[in-house]
């Protein structure tokens, strides 16, 4: 029994060591070790309770392989499923083991191709084709983002200019109104008492005219403010569309969204500001 426990301990350590060597083909050694020591995991369907309890999984107090991966190896079950798919491919195409190809790339080729490449030469050609498609797609997306970003900035600059102009007009009309009111009142003080009604009428007419002009400017300002609000919504929609483009690109090319963002940033295509 002690020999069995020691063997299980060695297996656990071996699996942990191999987890960090995916890029060097270590994932294949990992899967080969699992296939040798835990062959029931390579079969279809859920492992039975007896196999679990009699293996390193049960020895560690785990009730399932998924539980063992999480608690003992600190590994994701989804990654295991990907490695298992790639390992099945390596059994059909020996060059995968010979060249220690990466899991992520294997699955990308498998998902994209109708018939998986039968030789390493064909595999390389297909990967190159995918890279070219990726480059073209990124270029188109980059151009789309640049055009939308340019239009958005032009709209914002135009709106800012109009708002500044309207604000200046409002300030100017307010000053004109205040000055006119003050001047008319000063003038009315110099008129004879019997002329006050005329002065009041003149003052009222001046103020009415200025107020009408003022209201026109205020109306224009409100209209432009609504235009600014609409433009802000348009900006948010454009940014959202850009994010959706990046997400679709990430899914289509099977590359992380973060990589796409770094690519866009390196090309100075910011969508904010």
Summarize the structure in words.
The protein is mainly α and 273 residues long. It has 11 helices and no strands. It has 2 domains: 1-116, no CATH class; 136-270. The protein is 79% helix and 0% strand.
Short descriptors:
disordered C terminus, single chain
Question: How many distinct folded domains?
Answer: 2
Find the count of extended strands (DSSP E, 2+ residues): 0
Structural class: mainly alpha
Helical percent range? Answer: over 70%
Question: What can be said about the biggest beta sheet?
Answer: none
List the helices and strands and how they pair.
Blueprint: H1 2-19, H2 26-37, H3 49-54, H4 56-59, H5 65-71, H6 77-92, H7 95-99, H8 103-112, H9 120-190, H10 196-253, H11 257-266
Give the gist of this structure.
The chain has helices spanning 2-19, 26-37, 49-54, 56-59, 65-71, 77-92, 95-99, 103-112, 120-190, 196-253, 257-266. The protein is mostly helical.
């Amino acid at each position: 029994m002690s020999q069995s426990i020691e063997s299980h301990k060695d297996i656990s350590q071996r699996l942990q060591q191999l987890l960090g060597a995916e890029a060097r083909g270590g994932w294949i050694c990992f899967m080969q070790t699992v296939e040798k020591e835990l062959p029931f995991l390579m079969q279809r369907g859920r492992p039975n309770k007896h196999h679990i309890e009699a293996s390193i999984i049960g020895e560690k107090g785990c009730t399932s392989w998924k539980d063992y991966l999480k608690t003992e190896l600190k590994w994701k079950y989804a990654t295991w499923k990907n490695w298992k798919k790639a390992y099945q491919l390596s059994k059909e195409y020996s060059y995968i083991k010979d060249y220690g190809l990466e899991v992520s790339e294997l699955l990308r080729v498998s998902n994209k191709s109708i018939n998986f490449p039968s030789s390493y030469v064909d595999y390389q050609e297909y990967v190159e084709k995918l890279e070219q498609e990726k480059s073209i797609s990124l270029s188109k997306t980059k151009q789309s983002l640049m055009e939308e970003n340019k239009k958005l900035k032009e709209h914002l600059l135009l709106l800012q200019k109009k708002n500044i102009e309207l604000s200046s007009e409002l300030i100017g009309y307010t000053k004109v109104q205040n000055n006119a009111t003050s001047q008319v009142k000063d003038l009315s003080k110099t008129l004879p008492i019997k002329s006050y009604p005329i002065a009041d009428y003149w003052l009222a007419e001046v103020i009415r005219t200025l107020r009408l002009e003022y209201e026109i400017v205020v109306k224009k300002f409100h209209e432009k403010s609504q235009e600014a609000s609409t433009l802000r919504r348009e900006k948010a929609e454009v940014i959202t569309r850009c994010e959706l483009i990046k997400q679709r690109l990430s899914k289509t090319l099977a590359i992380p969204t973060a990589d796409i963002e770094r690519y866009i940033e390196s090309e100075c295509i910011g969508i904010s500001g």
